[in-house]
Amino acid sequence: MTPFRDIYESAILFRGTSEIESLNCDPKPDQELRSMSDNEFLSLMSRRIFRAGLKHSMVDAKWPVFEQVFSRFDIHRVSAMSDEDLDLLMKDKRIIRHWNKIKSVRFNAQAMVGLLENSDGFGRFLADWPVDNIVGLWLELKKHFAQLGGNSAPYFLRMSGKDTFLLTNDVIRALNRWGAYQGEPKSQKARLVVQECFNTWKQESNKPMCQISIILALSVQ
Length: 221
Fold this sequence. Notes:
By secondary structure, the protein is mainly α.
């Protein structure tokens, strides 16, 4: 596979030094992740789920109302919501009335409560997960939470501040272009191969996964 310095030079050729050097994708320090409340993570997870397939700005504009109707995303209060409570939300025109996504908020609150029986806070769970196996964390989130398949788990992590790469169309094109992987890495086995490539580039560049991911995307036309 191609050394990262060659990929970086290609990105500079296409985008210019100033754009590459101005990348502001910085993961949160582990201590900051640990200090975030579980309610914050449920809100971010839910926002990612509602953003999927919709215009992000539209979802974000409605989010203060979501915070209100879901009790500030208090994981214990949301996990105790009844079916009747969810039915009422389907009649609330202030929010996005998508039944499966609305149900996912309660399901994910319950999953988070269950997970925290063995973990001292969801932020600690994320912070303690090794970045050199971030695709393993994607799989773990997909297994235990609703509506976090595809790219939703990595996008949620990016929103939360946990370092991760993304498998966008441009990143996949770059992986193909630079000999890291041919085709689209859909299986867990394929994603582990890609993970090893990112681990190597991280060692070479001393950059976080999120920045490597963006530079890869900018390295192809």
